[in-house]
Amino acid sequence: MIDDLDSEMRARGISGLVGFGETTLADPDLTYAVGGALTRGSAYFKHVGKQALLLVSSLDFASAKKHSRTNRVETYSQWGYEKLLKKYGNRDQVFPHLISQVLRKERVRGNVVLFGRYDLTRGIQLAASLRKVGVKVVGQRSPTVLEAARERKDNRELEEIRRVGERTAKVVTEVMGLLHNAKERRGRLMIEKKSATIGLMKSIIQSKLAGMGLIAPEGTIFAIGPSGADPHNVGVPDERIRKGRLIVFDIFPQAESGYWFDLTRTFVIGRANDKDRRIFAAVEDAQTSCLDYLKAGQKCETAMELACNVIERAGYHTVREVYTGGAKSVSSGFTHALGHGVGLTIGERPYLGFMNRDLLRERQVVTVEPGVYLPGYGGVRIEDTVQITSKGIEHLAHVEKELELS
Amino acid sequence: MIDDLDSEMRARGISGLVGFGETTLADPDLTYAVGGALTRGSAYFKHVGKQALLLVSSLDFASAKKHSRTNRVETYSQWGYEKLLKKYGNRDQVFPHLISQVLRKERVRGNVVLFGRYDLTRGIQLAASLRKVGVKVVGQRSPTVLEAARERKDNRELEEIRRVGERTAKVVTEVMGLLHNAKERRGRLMIEKKSATIGLMKSIIQSKLAGMGLIAPEGTIFAIGPSGADPHNVGVPDERIRKGRLIVFDIFPQAESGYWFDLTRTFVIGRANDKDRRIFAAVEDAQTSCLDYLKAGQKCETAMELACNVIERAGYHTVREVYTGGAKSVSSGFTHALGHGVGLTIGERPYLGFMNRDLLRERQVVTVEPGVYLPGYGGVRIEDTVQITSKGIEHLAHVEKELELS
Fold first, then answer.
1. Exposed/middle/buried for A83, CB within 10 Å: 0-12, 13-18, 19+?
2. Which residues of A touch B233 (CB under 8 A)?
3. Of B90, B91, B217, which is closest to A215 when you measure between CB atoms?
4. CATH number, position B172
5. Claim to verify: residue B141 and residue B205 sit in the same structural domain
6. Nearest-CA neighbor of A56 among A83, A29, A34, A88?
7. Does the interface ipTM go beyond 0.95?
8. Domain boundary at B126, B150, B174, which?
9. By three-state DSSP, how is residue A87 classified?
10. Nearest CA among A165, A156, A163, A236 for reference residue A201
11. Which among B120, B125, B212 is the top mutation candidate for probing chain A, defined by the most A β-carbons within 10 Å of its own β-carbon?
12. CB–CB contact A210 B213 (8 Å)
């Protein structure tokens, strides 16, 4: 939560934060600090223990006043941006002066952390220029102050993620309905009067997302049969959709607010065979065990162990053989981690996997997504995005988990 | 062009480039160096005068081999990533070792520039760690090596931008067709059986873009009447679309490849009045003059001057009053710059505005977008994205410029 910034700064001995970027687009930390999107970016200043100060373009002033988390919004012009630009001629020479000026006025004298997604070489130059005028710029390894603060979501964020989740669920349910009702013509499944291919489904999914105000900047996974056996295969556009084959549908859209959601369902159109049923049951059981286990105070690592227990008992390999069994790699069975945080990114802390001894905390939002993959055959993954509470978990979207669409 | 990297490196005294990022998404420089999208990012190494080396996750190896500009693709594992991770425990500690190891093997001994959109504080830490083991990391101000190389587009890029342009033009033409054919019911314009509002049009536009495989990460401007008089007003969702009012429709979508396009049309549904016609004619004349002027070897600044000449002669203010006339600001007339480069970003070099004495070069792609805004009344902007050639310009998309949809 944004209120965690101060404690995270203190824990790291940081006096000041400076967030900087020419847009908040695709910049989760700056979006978070600012409290919303600003097309022309921002320079964000925070002295530990004090309210943040936001400098924005005068074009964004009204919008920043309305949406930002801080009352202290001022414009670059008020801090002499245009004069400095006339003097130095280059934006990249102006900002070191402007930033150091603000830091002096805000009385930040100790270590300063810069954040925001920014070109590395210009960022390194900015740090050098600031150091030259006495600013104590320090680097940080992950988890940074902002990553740590973003782990626990406040009510506004939880509501927004739920809103994204509800819309995502609607798209998934509608797509499953289309497939359920698809008719065969001359041996081919038809959807909206066209031969049902992976490409067609993706275009339908994209249009449905757009209709809900969502985009899928990283694409969508819609993979059938052997393609679905590779968890990273997004699906082959020309491939035809057939009855009786496992289909992995993994959707991870983003709303205009910057928040993401992550949801996977696996199903067969028509009747599944016994092999499919066994895989599906193992994955579903693994997910249920994990969802039952998760709550604030539990170990991330243990959730992963639980999923492996269930899947191994059902007779499949798991990635545990690599971590504790000395295997070099695992190419079949449960080959990836159990889950990850979701928020202003589609993969963030906490990570539900081996080697993570962290305890879960209230207000974290995580995916729970066990899977079993049989190369050359197919895969099953079931994924929900849930909120961690003191008592357990809360689902943020509802879509039925049925193997057969029949 | 990618071939410009060597000359740009030499001009700046740089021996090695290191591109680094955890995804190529929303990272134009890394996408450019790699030659395509890589979900899990890349570490890119280039010794001046030599072919680049790409390190990728083994999951991305096949895709990188297929799409990247270099034949030299290897995996992190081949360079001992897992062993280093076991030793250091944190990814952010692994990469300095891995990067310095590669630079030694590639015999990069001089100045090294890091690039890629990356968290500032982790980037500053990465630079510090690399310097500790002897890598001569230097910062750079804009224009960086990559920004400079990206200015001129190669044939593959021009074709892709044209493809994005053609799809964008199709969406714009279809939307204008819908508005043209809209019928009135009880005094309200109806589209697809709903009352035509800005919000409805935006949702239709988004769906049409999705159907073409395009997204609009920065939104779309669809503004009517006084809203359109502010070039930064994206349009008010609840506002109703009426006949006889200026509508500014500015669309800037991005394809999966990462390339953008930028196109604006202004029109009136039904009949325009004389005032609208005068504004429209001034803006159209300004654009024509500029399009006639532009070709390789001409000055960016002069194009802007030309646009101001035409618009001032027609009786409107221009931003020239600020640059050369000493006015503090201009709130009516032509209040912004003439255009900007388009490619893997929606705003890049070259900039067509005052203070830019650079000469245009073949293979640059720029917007030409004069506008006239009358606060409280409305605005007109006409924008095309064109390619600069030795003989003039080439249009990259075709949409008619008609003031009246009637």
1. exposed
2. none
3. B217
4. 3.90.230.10
5. no
6. A34
7. no
8. B150
9. helix
10. A236
11. B120
12. no
Of B25, B90, B216, the CB nearest to A141: B90
The domain of B197 spans 155-405
- The string of pLDDT tens digits covering residues A285-333 is 999 999 999 999 999 999 999 999 999 999 999 999 988 878 888 999 9
- The first and second tokens of residue A344, run together, are 């202003």
- Count of structural domains, chain A: 2
What pLDDT shows up at residue A326? Answer: 80
B122 contacts A118? CB cut-off 8 A: no
- Residue pair A144/A33 in contact by the 8 Å Cβ criterion: no
Task: Quick: pLDDT tens for B86-119.
Answer: 899 889 999 999 999 999 999 999 999 999 999 9
Detail the DSSP E strand segments found in B116-216: 117-119, 136-137, 183-185, 188-191, 194-195, 214-215
Q: Which of residues 304-343 of B touch A (CB under 8 A)?
A: none
3-state helix, strand, coil in chain B (%, to 5): 40, 25, 40
DSSP codes of every residue in A129-196? HHHHTT-EE---PSSPHHHHHHTS--HHHHHHHHHHHHHHHHHHHHHHHHHHHPEEETTEEEETTEE-
- Taking contacts as CB-CB distances below 8 angstroms, the residues of chain A near B348 are none
Whether B213 and A203 lie within 8 Å, measured CB to CB? yes
Tens of pLDDT, residue by residue over A84-124, are: 988 998 899 999 999 999 999 999 999 999 999 999 999 99
Could you give the CA distance from residue A251 to residue A214 in angstroms, rounded to a whole number? Answer: 11
Q: Are residues A285 and A382 in the same domain?
A: yes
Q: Rounded to 5 degrees, what are φ and ψ at A297?
A: 100, -20
Residues 26-85 of A with CB under 8 A from B: 26, 29, 39, 59
Give the pair of three-digit tokens for residue B218: 């920065």
CA–CA separation, B234 vs A31, rounded Å?
Answer: 19
